[in-house]
Protein backbone atom coordinates (compact mmCIF):
# COMPACT_ATOMS: atom_id res chain seq x y z
CA UNK A 1 0.00 0.00 0.00
CA UNK A 2 1.37 3.45 -0.88
CA UNK A 3 2.68 5.50 2.02
CA UNK A 4 0.93 8.47 0.49
CA UNK A 5 -2.53 7.07 -0.04
CA UNK A 6 -3.68 5.08 2.97
CA UNK A 7 -6.58 6.45 4.96
CA UNK A 8 -6.39 5.66 8.64
CA UNK A 9 -7.73 6.31 12.07
CA UNK A 10 -6.66 9.39 14.02
CA UNK A 11 -9.20 9.16 16.84
CA UNK A 12 -8.43 5.78 18.39
CA UNK A 13 -11.15 5.66 21.03
CA UNK A 14 -13.81 5.12 18.39
CA UNK A 15 -12.91 1.47 18.00
CA UNK A 16 -11.69 -1.46 20.05
CA UNK A 17 -9.24 -4.15 19.32
CA UNK A 18 -10.74 -7.30 17.89
CA UNK A 19 -9.69 -10.72 19.08
CA UNK A 20 -6.25 -11.79 17.95
CA UNK A 21 -5.79 -14.41 15.32
CA UNK A 22 -3.45 -17.34 15.77
CA UNK A 23 -0.70 -15.33 14.07
CA UNK A 24 -0.64 -12.96 17.02
CA UNK A 25 -1.81 -10.06 14.87
CA UNK A 26 -5.20 -8.52 15.45
CA UNK A 27 -7.92 -9.30 12.93
CA UNK A 28 -8.96 -6.03 11.31
CA UNK A 29 -12.56 -4.92 11.62
CA UNK A 30 -12.62 -1.61 9.75
CA UNK A 31 -15.11 1.04 10.78
CA UNK A 32 -15.67 4.54 9.43
CA UNK A 33 -15.30 7.91 11.09
CA UNK A 34 -15.41 11.58 10.20
CA UNK A 35 -12.09 13.32 10.82
CA UNK A 36 -13.26 16.91 10.46
CA UNK A 37 -15.85 18.92 8.60
CA UNK A 38 -15.23 18.85 4.87
CA UNK A 39 -12.77 15.96 5.07
CA UNK A 40 -13.69 12.54 3.67
CA UNK A 41 -14.43 9.75 6.10
CA UNK A 42 -11.48 7.49 6.83
CA UNK A 43 -11.25 3.95 8.06
CA UNK A 44 -10.39 3.01 11.62
CA UNK A 45 -8.00 0.12 12.09
CA UNK A 46 -9.76 -0.67 15.38
CA UNK A 47 -7.07 0.80 17.60
CA UNK A 48 -7.81 1.10 21.33
CA UNK A 49 -9.16 4.07 23.24
CA UNK A 50 -5.81 4.78 24.91
CA UNK A 51 -2.58 3.04 24.08
CA UNK A 52 -2.08 2.20 27.76
CA UNK A 53 -5.07 -0.16 27.64
CA UNK A 54 -3.44 -2.42 25.04
CA UNK A 55 -1.73 -5.72 25.61
CA UNK A 56 1.42 -4.33 23.99
CA UNK A 57 1.64 -1.49 26.53
CA UNK A 58 0.96 -3.83 29.45
CA UNK A 59 3.55 -6.25 28.11
CA UNK A 60 6.15 -3.48 28.10
CA UNK A 61 5.20 -2.41 31.62
CA UNK A 62 5.76 -5.98 32.82
CA UNK A 63 8.97 -6.23 30.79
CA UNK A 64 10.41 -3.25 32.66
CA UNK A 65 10.80 -5.50 35.69
CA UNK A 66 13.20 -7.64 33.67
CA UNK A 67 15.13 -4.59 32.47
CA UNK A 68 15.43 -3.37 36.06
CA UNK A 69 17.48 -6.51 36.77
CA UNK A 70 20.07 -5.57 34.15
CA UNK A 71 22.86 -3.00 34.05
CA UNK A 72 24.30 -1.29 31.01
CA UNK A 73 27.85 -2.14 32.06
CA UNK A 74 26.93 -5.77 31.38
CA UNK A 75 24.65 -5.21 28.40
CA UNK A 76 27.28 -3.15 26.58
CA UNK A 77 29.67 -6.12 26.62
CA UNK A 78 27.28 -8.27 24.55
CA UNK A 79 28.64 -7.96 21.01
CA UNK A 80 25.58 -9.48 19.35
CA UNK A 81 23.32 -7.03 21.18
CA UNK A 82 25.55 -4.08 20.27
CA UNK A 83 25.50 -5.03 16.61
CA UNK A 84 21.73 -5.40 16.66
CA UNK A 85 21.04 -2.07 18.36
CA UNK A 86 22.17 0.20 15.55
CA UNK A 87 20.26 1.76 12.70
CA UNK A 88 21.74 3.51 9.68
CA UNK A 89 20.40 5.36 6.68
CA UNK A 90 22.19 7.31 3.95
CA UNK A 91 25.20 8.26 6.06
CA UNK A 92 23.32 8.82 9.32
CA UNK A 93 24.49 6.23 11.85
CA UNK A 94 22.75 5.73 15.19
CA UNK A 95 24.00 3.47 17.97
CA UNK A 96 21.47 2.92 20.75
CA UNK A 97 23.25 0.06 22.52
CA UNK A 98 23.54 2.34 25.57
CA UNK A 99 19.79 2.54 25.96
CA UNK A 100 18.27 0.37 28.68
CA UNK A 101 16.80 -2.03 26.17
CA UNK A 102 17.40 -5.50 24.81
CA UNK A 103 16.43 -6.95 21.46
CA UNK A 104 13.30 -8.23 23.19
CA UNK A 105 12.49 -4.71 24.37
CA UNK A 106 12.73 -3.40 20.82
CA UNK A 107 10.48 -6.15 19.51
CA UNK A 108 7.89 -5.18 22.08
CA UNK A 109 8.23 -1.49 21.17
CA UNK A 110 7.71 -2.25 17.49
CA UNK A 111 4.64 -4.28 18.47
CA UNK A 112 3.44 -1.21 20.37
CA UNK A 113 3.88 0.82 17.19
CA UNK A 114 1.69 -1.66 15.33
CA UNK A 115 -0.88 -1.53 18.12
CA UNK A 116 -0.98 2.28 17.90
CA UNK A 117 -1.43 2.09 14.12
CA UNK A 118 1.74 4.12 13.66
CA UNK A 119 2.12 3.22 9.99
CA UNK A 120 -1.41 4.31 9.27
CA UNK A 121 -0.94 7.63 11.07
CA UNK A 122 2.26 8.33 9.17
CA UNK A 123 0.45 7.57 5.92
CA UNK A 124 -2.40 9.86 6.92
CA UNK A 125 0.03 12.73 7.51
CA UNK A 126 1.70 12.29 4.11
CA UNK A 127 -1.69 11.90 2.45
CA UNK A 128 -2.89 15.32 3.55
CA UNK A 129 -5.57 14.13 5.98
CA UNK A 130 -6.59 16.72 8.55
CA UNK A 131 -4.78 14.98 11.38
CA UNK A 132 -4.62 18.26 13.32
CA UNK A 133 -8.25 17.75 14.23
CA UNK A 134 -8.59 20.55 16.82
CA UNK A 135 -7.74 23.12 14.14
CA UNK A 136 -9.13 21.11 11.20
CA UNK A 137 -5.84 21.21 9.31
CA UNK A 138 -3.56 18.92 7.37
CA UNK A 139 0.02 18.57 8.63
CA UNK A 140 2.33 18.82 5.65
CA UNK A 141 5.61 20.51 6.48
CA UNK A 142 7.07 17.63 4.45
CA UNK A 143 5.49 19.17 1.34
CA UNK A 144 7.66 22.27 1.71
CA UNK A 145 10.70 20.18 0.73
CA UNK A 146 9.05 17.77 -1.73
CA UNK A 147 10.59 17.54 -5.23
CA UNK A 148 8.66 19.12 -8.08
CA UNK A 149 7.49 15.79 -9.46
CA UNK A 150 5.82 14.60 -6.25
CA UNK A 151 2.06 14.65 -5.77
CA UNK A 152 0.78 15.50 -2.29
CA UNK A 153 -2.91 16.33 -2.07
CA UNK A 154 -4.78 18.45 0.43
CA UNK A 155 -8.55 18.43 0.01
CA UNK A 156 -8.17 17.04 -3.49
CA UNK A 157 -5.55 19.54 -4.69
CA UNK A 158 -1.89 18.80 -5.37
CA UNK A 159 -0.05 21.42 -3.30
CA UNK A 160 3.48 20.72 -4.55
CA UNK A 161 3.15 23.18 -7.49
CA UNK A 162 2.13 25.91 -5.00
CA UNK A 163 5.21 25.14 -2.92
CA UNK A 164 7.47 25.44 -5.92
CA UNK A 165 5.83 28.66 -7.08
CA UNK A 166 6.98 30.19 -3.80
CA UNK A 167 10.42 28.56 -3.96
CA UNK A 168 10.92 29.84 -7.52
CA UNK A 169 9.92 33.31 -6.37
CA UNK A 170 12.41 33.08 -3.50
CA UNK A 171 15.16 31.99 -5.88
CA UNK A 172 14.44 34.83 -8.30
CA UNK A 173 14.26 37.50 -5.60
CA UNK A 174 17.27 36.37 -3.59
CA UNK A 175 19.46 36.09 -6.68
CA UNK A 176 18.52 39.65 -7.65
CA UNK A 177 19.42 40.93 -4.18
CA UNK A 178 22.66 38.96 -4.04
CA UNK A 179 23.88 39.95 -7.52
CA UNK A 180 23.02 43.62 -7.07
CA UNK A 181 20.11 43.77 -9.48
CA UNK A 182 17.79 44.66 -6.58
CA UNK A 183 19.23 47.73 -4.86
CA UNK A 184 18.21 49.78 -1.87
CA UNK A 185 16.44 53.15 -1.97
CA UNK A 186 19.70 55.07 -2.45
CA UNK A 187 21.11 52.67 -5.03
CA UNK A 188 23.38 50.68 -2.71
CA UNK A 189 23.48 46.85 -2.59
CA UNK A 190 21.58 45.23 0.27
CA UNK A 191 24.21 43.16 2.05
CA UNK A 192 22.65 42.94 5.53
CA UNK A 193 19.41 41.13 6.34
CA UNK A 194 17.38 41.35 9.54
CA UNK A 195 14.71 38.65 9.86
CA UNK A 196 11.93 39.61 12.28
CA UNK A 197 9.88 36.73 13.67
CA UNK A 198 9.34 34.79 16.86
CA UNK A 199 8.95 31.16 17.90
CA UNK A 200 9.26 28.86 14.91
CA UNK A 201 9.83 31.87 12.68
CA UNK A 202 13.06 32.45 14.59
CA UNK A 203 14.37 29.29 16.26
CA UNK A 204 14.34 27.07 13.17
CA UNK A 205 16.05 29.53 10.81
CA UNK A 206 18.57 30.45 13.53
CA UNK A 207 19.43 26.76 14.02
CA UNK A 208 20.11 26.31 10.30
CA UNK A 209 22.04 29.59 10.04
CA UNK A 210 24.26 28.60 12.95
CA UNK A 211 24.86 25.18 11.43
CA UNK A 212 25.99 26.62 8.08
CA UNK A 213 28.03 29.66 9.11
CA UNK A 214 31.30 27.72 9.26
CA UNK A 215 30.53 25.18 6.55
CA UNK A 216 33.05 25.93 3.80
CA UNK A 217 30.71 25.77 0.81
CA UNK A 218 27.94 27.71 2.53
CA UNK A 219 30.35 30.28 3.95
CA UNK A 220 31.75 30.96 0.48
CA UNK A 221 28.27 31.93 -0.66
CA UNK A 222 27.84 34.24 2.33
CA UNK A 223 31.00 36.31 1.88
CA UNK A 224 30.32 40.01 2.33
CA UNK A 225 26.85 39.38 3.74
CA UNK A 226 25.36 39.15 7.23
CA UNK A 227 22.11 37.76 8.59
CA UNK A 228 20.61 38.72 11.93
CA UNK A 229 17.42 37.71 13.72
CA UNK A 230 15.14 39.91 15.80
CA UNK A 231 12.66 37.96 17.93
CA UNK A 232 12.24 39.38 21.41
CA UNK A 233 10.03 42.43 21.84
CA UNK A 234 12.56 43.66 24.42
CA UNK A 235 14.05 46.89 22.98
CA UNK A 236 17.47 45.56 23.94
CA UNK A 237 17.06 42.89 21.27
CA UNK A 238 16.15 45.62 18.76
CA UNK A 239 19.27 47.56 19.71
CA UNK A 240 21.53 44.54 19.41
CA UNK A 241 20.01 43.43 16.11
CA UNK A 242 20.48 46.86 14.53
CA UNK A 243 23.86 47.58 16.09
CA UNK A 244 26.33 48.73 13.43
CA UNK A 245 23.90 48.34 10.54
CA UNK A 246 23.39 50.97 7.84
CA UNK A 247 19.74 51.37 6.78
CA UNK A 248 20.92 52.05 3.22
CA UNK A 249 22.31 48.52 2.91
CA UNK A 250 19.82 46.65 5.12
CA UNK A 251 16.91 44.48 3.97
CA UNK A 252 14.27 43.50 6.55
CA UNK A 253 12.20 40.30 6.32
CA UNK A 254 9.03 40.41 8.44
CA UNK A 255 7.70 36.91 9.16
CA UNK A 256 4.12 36.69 10.36
CA UNK A 257 1.48 34.51 8.74
CA UNK A 258 -1.40 36.76 9.76
CA UNK A 259 0.68 39.93 10.06
CA UNK A 260 -0.86 40.40 13.50
CA UNK A 261 1.63 38.67 15.85
CA UNK A 262 1.98 41.27 18.62
CA UNK A 263 5.70 41.01 19.31
CA UNK A 264 6.70 40.64 15.66
CA UNK A 265 4.62 43.56 14.45
CA UNK A 266 5.83 45.91 17.20
CA UNK A 267 9.40 45.04 16.26
CA UNK A 268 8.54 45.49 12.57
CA UNK A 269 7.06 48.94 13.23
CA UNK A 270 10.14 49.87 15.25
CA UNK A 271 12.56 48.84 12.50
CA UNK A 272 10.37 50.46 9.87
CA UNK A 273 10.67 53.74 11.72
CA UNK A 274 14.44 53.26 11.88
CA UNK A 275 14.45 53.02 8.08
CA UNK A 276 12.06 55.94 7.61
CA UNK A 277 14.04 58.18 9.96
CA UNK A 278 17.09 57.77 7.76
CA UNK A 279 15.75 57.22 4.25
CA UNK A 280 12.12 58.38 4.20
CA UNK A 281 8.82 56.53 3.92
CA UNK A 282 9.30 55.58 0.26
CA UNK A 283 12.32 53.47 1.22
CA UNK A 284 10.13 50.89 2.95
CA UNK A 285 9.17 49.25 -0.35
CA UNK A 286 12.81 48.66 -1.20
CA UNK A 287 14.03 47.70 2.25
CA UNK A 288 11.23 45.56 3.70
CA UNK A 289 9.62 42.33 2.46
CA UNK A 290 7.18 39.95 4.14
CA UNK A 291 6.50 36.27 4.65
CA UNK A 292 2.74 36.34 5.15
CA UNK A 293 -0.61 35.36 3.71
CA UNK A 294 -2.37 38.59 4.73
CA UNK A 295 -1.65 40.75 1.70
CA UNK A 296 -4.08 43.46 2.84
CA UNK A 297 -2.18 44.14 6.06
CA UNK A 298 1.15 43.77 4.27
CA UNK A 299 0.16 46.56 1.89
CA UNK A 300 -1.21 48.76 4.67
CA UNK A 301 2.13 48.36 6.46
CA UNK A 302 3.91 49.83 3.43
CA UNK A 303 5.35 46.66 1.93
CA UNK A 304 4.64 45.95 -1.74
CA UNK A 305 2.34 42.87 -1.84
CA UNK A 306 4.43 41.62 -4.76
CA UNK A 307 7.24 41.25 -2.22
CA UNK A 308 5.20 39.00 0.09
CA UNK A 309 6.09 35.30 0.14
CA UNK A 310 3.32 32.87 1.01
CA UNK A 311 3.04 29.88 3.28
CA UNK A 312 0.06 27.83 4.35
CA UNK A 313 -2.02 26.81 7.35
CA UNK A 314 -0.88 23.20 6.89
CA UNK A 315 2.61 24.29 7.96
CA UNK A 316 2.89 24.78 11.71
CA UNK A 317 5.21 27.52 12.92
CA UNK A 318 7.67 25.19 14.63
CA UNK A 319 7.80 23.07 11.47
CA UNK A 320 8.14 25.99 9.04
CA UNK A 321 11.89 26.40 8.52
CA UNK A 322 11.72 24.70 5.09
CA UNK A 323 9.01 27.13 3.94
CA UNK A 324 9.58 30.78 3.03
CA UNK A 325 9.93 31.41 6.78
CA UNK A 326 13.44 29.99 6.66
CA UNK A 327 14.19 29.67 2.98
CA UNK A 328 13.90 33.41 2.23
CA UNK A 329 16.36 34.81 4.82
CA UNK A 330 18.69 31.81 4.54
CA UNK A 331 18.76 32.00 0.71
CA UNK A 332 19.55 35.70 0.96
CA UNK A 333 22.54 34.77 3.10
CA UNK A 334 23.83 31.56 1.49
CA UNK A 335 22.23 31.42 -1.94
CA UNK A 336 19.27 29.36 -3.08
CA UNK A 337 21.39 26.52 -4.47
CA UNK A 338 22.87 25.83 -1.02
CA UNK A 339 19.48 25.97 0.64
CA UNK A 340 17.98 23.65 -1.96
CA UNK A 341 20.47 21.02 -0.75
CA UNK A 342 19.08 21.58 2.75
CA UNK A 343 15.58 20.79 1.43
CA UNK A 344 16.89 17.70 -0.33
CA UNK A 345 18.42 16.40 2.90
CA UNK A 346 15.16 16.88 4.77
CA UNK A 347 13.13 15.19 2.03
CA UNK A 348 15.56 12.28 1.98
CA UNK A 349 14.72 11.60 5.62
CA UNK A 350 11.01 12.28 4.98
CA UNK A 351 10.88 9.45 2.45
CA UNK A 352 12.80 7.17 4.77
CA UNK A 353 10.34 7.90 7.59
CA UNK A 354 7.35 7.28 5.33
CA UNK A 355 8.49 4.03 3.77
CA UNK A 356 11.20 2.21 5.75
CA UNK A 357 10.29 -0.79 7.93
CA UNK A 358 10.15 0.30 11.55
CA UNK A 359 13.12 -1.85 12.53
CA UNK A 360 15.24 0.06 9.97
CA UNK A 361 13.58 3.45 10.46
CA UNK A 362 15.76 6.03 12.21
CA UNK A 363 13.06 8.51 13.39
CA UNK A 364 10.64 5.74 14.37
CA UNK A 365 13.26 3.85 16.37
CA UNK A 366 14.38 7.00 18.18
CA UNK A 367 10.78 7.98 18.86
CA UNK A 368 9.99 4.58 20.36
CA UNK A 369 13.06 4.80 22.59
CA UNK A 370 11.81 8.15 23.87
CA UNK A 371 8.38 6.64 24.60
CA UNK A 372 10.14 3.87 26.54
CA UNK A 373 12.25 6.33 28.52
CA UNK A 374 9.41 8.70 29.36
CA UNK A 375 6.44 6.42 29.94
CA UNK A 376 8.10 3.28 31.27
CA UNK A 377 11.44 4.34 32.79
CA UNK A 378 9.99 7.59 34.21
CA UNK A 379 12.66 9.84 32.72
CA UNK A 380 11.27 13.40 32.59
CA UNK A 381 13.89 15.07 30.39
CA UNK A 382 16.25 14.61 27.47
CA UNK A 383 19.63 16.26 26.87
CA UNK A 384 20.61 17.05 23.28
CA UNK A 385 24.40 17.17 23.20
CA UNK A 386 25.94 17.95 19.81
CA UNK A 387 29.71 17.63 19.77
CA UNK A 388 30.01 20.45 17.27
CA UNK A 389 29.63 24.15 18.01
CA UNK A 390 27.82 24.54 14.69
CA UNK A 391 24.78 22.74 16.17
CA UNK A 392 24.63 25.08 19.17
CA UNK A 393 21.07 26.13 18.27
CA UNK A 394 19.74 22.63 17.63
CA UNK A 395 18.62 22.06 21.23
CA UNK A 396 16.67 25.36 21.51
CA UNK A 397 14.89 24.60 18.25
CA UNK A 398 14.02 21.01 19.17
CA UNK A 399 12.99 22.29 22.59
CA UNK A 400 10.14 24.10 20.85
CA UNK A 401 9.43 21.36 18.31
CA UNK A 402 9.16 18.67 20.98
CA UNK A 403 7.73 20.49 23.98
CA UNK A 404 5.13 22.49 22.06
CA UNK A 405 4.12 19.37 20.14
CA UNK A 406 3.97 16.77 22.90
CA UNK A 407 3.57 18.84 26.04
CA UNK A 408 -0.03 17.66 26.34
CA UNK A 409 -2.10 16.13 29.13
CA UNK A 410 -5.03 14.89 27.05
CA UNK A 411 -5.36 12.62 24.04
CA UNK A 412 -6.31 13.85 20.59
CA UNK A 413 -9.96 13.25 21.46
CA UNK A 414 -9.76 15.04 24.81
CA UNK A 415 -9.28 12.18 27.27
CA UNK A 416 -7.02 12.86 30.29
CA UNK A 417 -3.93 10.69 29.99
CA UNK A 418 -2.95 8.25 32.76
CA UNK A 419 0.68 8.18 31.57
CA UNK A 420 3.44 10.75 31.16
CA UNK A 421 4.13 12.30 27.76
CA UNK A 422 6.67 14.77 26.47
CA UNK A 423 10.16 15.56 27.67
CA UNK A 424 11.90 18.60 29.09
CA UNK A 425 14.46 19.22 26.36
CA UNK A 426 17.69 21.08 26.93
CA UNK A 427 21.25 20.91 25.72
CA UNK A 428 24.57 22.51 25.02
CA UNK A 429 27.41 21.65 22.66
CA UNK A 430 30.17 19.43 24.01
CA UNK A 431 32.50 20.02 25.67
CA UNK A 432 30.87 23.18 27.07
CA UNK A 433 28.06 21.18 28.65
CA UNK A 434 30.55 18.91 30.42
CA UNK A 435 31.62 21.92 32.49
CA UNK A 436 28.03 22.92 33.15
CA UNK A 437 25.33 20.30 33.81
CA UNK A 438 27.04 16.94 33.25
CA UNK A 439 27.50 16.64 37.01
CA UNK A 440 23.75 16.16 37.30
CA UNK A 441 23.43 13.67 34.46
CA UNK A 442 26.30 11.56 35.84
CA UNK A 443 25.45 11.54 39.55
CA UNK A 444 22.04 13.18 39.92
CA UNK A 445 18.81 12.60 38.04
CA UNK A 446 18.71 10.14 35.19
CA UNK A 447 18.50 12.14 31.96
CA UNK A 448 18.63 10.19 28.67
CA UNK A 449 21.13 11.86 26.34
CA UNK A 450 21.46 12.27 22.59
CA UNK A 451 25.13 12.55 21.65
CA UNK A 452 25.63 13.91 18.12
CA UNK A 453 29.06 13.68 16.53
CA UNK A 454 30.52 14.73 13.17
CA UNK A 455 33.16 12.60 11.45
CA UNK A 456 34.64 15.37 9.27
CA UNK A 457 34.85 18.73 11.01
CA UNK A 458 33.83 21.95 9.27
CA UNK A 459 37.13 23.40 10.47
CA UNK A 460 40.31 21.34 10.81
CA UNK A 461 43.11 22.34 13.20
CA UNK A 462 46.10 20.16 14.13
CA UNK A 463 48.89 21.94 15.99
CA UNK A 464 52.50 20.90 16.17
CA UNK A 465 53.29 19.07 19.38
CA UNK A 466 49.69 17.95 19.98
CA UNK A 467 48.94 14.23 19.99
CA UNK A 468 45.51 14.67 18.38
CA UNK A 469 43.79 17.35 16.32
CA UNK A 470 41.38 19.76 17.95
CA UNK A 471 38.42 17.92 16.48
CA UNK A 472 39.80 14.56 17.58
CA UNK A 473 40.04 15.94 21.12
CA UNK A 474 36.40 16.96 20.94
CA UNK A 475 35.34 13.56 19.63
CA UNK A 476 37.35 11.69 22.28
CA UNK A 477 34.94 13.25 24.75
CA UNK A 478 31.97 12.30 22.55
CA UNK A 479 32.92 8.62 22.80
CA UNK A 480 33.98 8.70 26.45
CA UNK A 481 30.96 10.47 27.93
CA UNK A 482 28.46 7.93 26.60
CA UNK A 483 30.46 5.07 28.10
CA UNK A 484 30.88 6.89 31.41
CA UNK A 485 27.13 7.31 31.70
CA UNK A 486 26.48 3.67 30.82
CA UNK A 487 29.21 1.92 32.79
CA UNK A 488 29.86 4.21 35.73
CA UNK A 489 32.48 3.47 38.39
CA UNK A 490 32.02 1.20 41.38
CA UNK A 491 33.27 1.36 44.94
CA UNK A 492 35.36 -1.74 44.26
CA UNK A 493 37.16 0.03 41.43
CA UNK A 494 37.76 3.07 43.59
CA UNK A 495 39.23 1.01 46.40
CA UNK A 496 41.57 -0.69 43.95
CA UNK A 497 42.82 2.80 43.12
CA UNK A 498 43.40 3.51 46.84
CA UNK A 499 40.62 6.06 46.99
CA UNK A 500 40.04 7.16 50.63
CA UNK A 501 36.91 5.59 52.10
CA UNK A 502 35.53 9.04 52.91
CA UNK A 503 35.52 9.96 49.21
CA UNK A 504 34.14 6.72 47.81
CA UNK A 505 30.45 7.76 48.05
CA UNK A 506 31.30 11.02 46.28
CA UNK A 507 33.35 9.42 43.51
CA UNK A 508 31.04 6.49 42.80
CA UNK A 509 29.18 6.64 39.49
CA UNK A 510 26.13 4.39 39.38
CA UNK A 511 26.11 4.22 35.60
CA UNK A 512 23.12 2.58 33.90
CA UNK A 513 22.21 5.97 32.48
CA UNK A 514 20.81 5.71 28.94
CA UNK A 515 22.09 7.54 25.90
CA UNK A 516 22.24 7.14 22.16
CA UNK A 517 24.88 8.30 19.72
CA UNK A 518 24.25 9.77 16.28
CA UNK A 519 27.11 10.28 13.84
CA UNK A 520 26.98 12.28 10.62
CA UNK A 521 29.70 12.05 7.95
CA UNK A 522 29.92 15.86 7.83
CA UNK A 523 27.79 18.86 8.72
CA UNK A 524 26.61 20.68 5.63
CA UNK A 525 23.32 21.90 4.18
CA UNK A 526 22.21 18.37 3.21
CA UNK A 527 22.95 16.70 6.55
CA UNK A 528 21.48 19.68 8.43
CA UNK A 529 18.24 18.94 6.60
CA UNK A 530 18.53 15.28 7.56
CA UNK A 531 19.03 15.95 11.28
CA UNK A 532 16.12 18.42 11.27
CA UNK A 533 13.76 15.87 9.72
CA UNK A 534 14.93 13.10 12.07
CA UNK A 535 13.93 15.12 15.11
CA UNK A 536 10.67 16.36 13.58
CA UNK A 537 9.57 12.81 12.76
CA UNK A 538 10.84 11.44 16.05
CA UNK A 539 8.53 13.90 17.80
CA UNK A 540 5.64 12.91 15.54
CA UNK A 541 6.28 9.23 16.28
CA UNK A 542 6.06 9.86 20.01
CA UNK A 543 2.83 11.80 19.62
CA UNK A 544 1.29 9.14 17.38
CA UNK A 545 2.12 6.42 19.91
CA UNK A 546 0.83 8.43 22.87
CA UNK A 547 -2.36 9.33 20.97
CA UNK A 548 -1.75 13.09 21.05
CA UNK A 549 -2.38 15.90 18.63
CA UNK A 550 1.25 16.93 18.21
CA UNK A 551 0.36 19.75 15.85
CA UNK A 552 -1.69 22.23 17.88
CA UNK A 553 -0.47 24.42 20.75
CA UNK A 554 -3.39 25.67 22.81
CA UNK A 555 -1.13 25.91 25.84
CA UNK A 556 0.49 29.09 24.54
CA UNK A 557 -2.81 30.99 24.23
CA UNK A 558 -3.86 31.77 27.81
CA UNK A 559 -0.79 33.84 28.63
CA UNK A 560 -1.33 35.91 25.48
CA UNK A 561 -4.92 36.66 26.50
CA UNK A 562 -3.90 37.72 29.99
CA UNK A 563 -1.05 39.86 28.60
CA UNK A 564 -3.60 41.71 26.49
CA UNK A 565 -5.52 42.60 29.64
CA UNK A 566 -2.33 43.80 31.33
CA UNK A 567 -1.44 45.84 28.23
CA UNK A 568 -4.79 47.62 28.23
CA UNK A 569 -4.59 48.42 31.94
CA UNK A 570 -0.95 49.48 31.67
CA UNK A 571 -1.84 51.98 28.95
CA UNK A 572 -4.71 53.37 31.02
CA UNK A 573 -2.64 53.81 34.17
CA UNK A 574 0.43 55.30 32.51
CA UNK A 575 -1.64 57.62 30.35
CA UNK A 576 -3.33 59.01 33.46
CA UNK A 577 -0.34 58.68 35.78
CA UNK A 578 -2.23 56.33 38.13
CA UNK A 579 -1.29 53.21 40.03
CA UNK A 580 -3.03 49.85 40.11
CA UNK A 581 -5.77 49.17 42.63
CA UNK A 582 -7.78 46.12 43.67
CA UNK A 583 -10.56 47.39 41.40
CA UNK A 584 -8.51 46.63 38.29
CA UNK A 585 -9.26 42.92 38.50
CA UNK A 586 -5.82 41.51 39.24
CA UNK A 587 -4.97 39.38 42.23
CA UNK A 588 -3.11 41.07 45.14
CA UNK A 589 0.25 39.59 44.14
CA UNK A 590 0.05 40.81 40.53
CA UNK A 591 -1.26 44.19 41.64
CA UNK A 592 1.69 44.64 44.00
CA UNK A 593 4.22 43.64 41.34
CA UNK A 594 2.66 45.94 38.75
CA UNK A 595 2.82 48.86 41.16
CA UNK A 596 6.44 48.09 41.99
CA UNK A 597 7.18 48.10 38.27
CA UNK A 598 5.38 51.42 37.73
CA UNK A 599 7.03 53.04 40.73
CA UNK A 600 10.44 52.10 39.36
CA UNK A 601 9.94 54.01 36.13
CA UNK A 602 11.62 57.38 35.67
CA UNK A 603 8.16 58.89 35.50
CA UNK A 604 4.85 57.22 36.06
CA UNK A 605 2.94 59.10 33.39
CA UNK A 606 3.88 58.47 29.80
CA UNK A 607 5.87 61.27 28.18
CA UNK A 608 4.77 62.43 24.76
CA UNK A 609 5.66 59.64 22.31
CA UNK A 610 8.71 60.24 20.15
CA UNK A 611 10.56 58.00 17.71
CA UNK A 612 13.91 57.42 19.36
CA UNK A 613 16.44 54.63 19.44
CA UNK A 614 18.94 53.76 22.16
CA UNK A 615 21.94 55.17 20.32
CA UNK A 616 24.32 54.35 23.13
CA UNK A 617 23.71 50.71 22.14
CA UNK A 618 23.31 51.14 18.38
CA UNK A 619 26.80 52.03 17.19
CA UNK A 620 25.83 53.58 13.88
CA UNK A 621 26.10 57.00 12.31
CA UNK A 622 22.56 56.51 11.08
CA UNK A 623 21.05 56.27 14.57
CA UNK A 624 19.37 59.60 15.30
CA UNK A 625 20.23 60.70 18.87
CA UNK A 626 17.15 61.51 20.96
CA UNK A 627 16.52 64.85 22.68
CA UNK A 628 18.07 65.93 25.97
CA UNK A 629 15.34 63.94 27.71
CA UNK A 630 17.22 60.81 26.64
CA UNK A 631 17.63 59.26 30.10
CA UNK A 632 13.95 59.73 30.90
CA UNK A 633 12.78 58.20 27.63
CA UNK A 634 15.17 55.27 27.71
CA UNK A 635 13.71 54.31 31.06
CA UNK A 636 10.11 54.66 30.03
Describe the structure.
It is built from 24 helices and 15 strands. Strand 10 (288-291), helix 12 (295-301) and strand 11 form a beta-alpha-beta unit. Helix 7 packs antiparallel against helix 16 and helix 13 packs across helix 14. The strands form 4 sheets. Strands 3-4-15-14-12-13 form a 6-stranded mixed β-sheet, with helices on both faces. The protein has a 5-stranded parallel β-sheet with strand order 8-7-9-10-11, with helices on both faces. The chain has a two-stranded antiparallel sheet with strand order 1-2. The relative contact order is 0.12. It has helices at residues 55-67, 72-75, 79-84, 103-115, 118-126, 160-179, 200-212, 216-221, 235-242, 262-279, 284-287, 295-301, 324-334, 336-355, 362-376, 394-406, 438-443, 470-487, 491-496, 504-507, 525-546, 557-576, 588-599, 630-634, and strands at 31-33, 42-44, 86-89, 92-95, 153-154, 157-158, 192-196, 226-230, 250-255, 288-291, 308-309, 381-386, 424-427, 449-456, 515-522. By secondary structure, the protein is an alpha/beta fold. The protein is globular and about 75 Å long.
Rounded Rg: 27 Å
C-alpha termini separation: 63 Å
Largest sheet: 6 strands, mixed
Tell me the structural class. alpha/beta
Strand line-up of the largest beta sheet: 3-4-15-14-12-13
Residue-averaged pLDDT, rounded?
Answer: 90
Please tell me what the overall shape is: globular
* Beta-strand content bin: 5-15%
The DSSP helix count reads 24
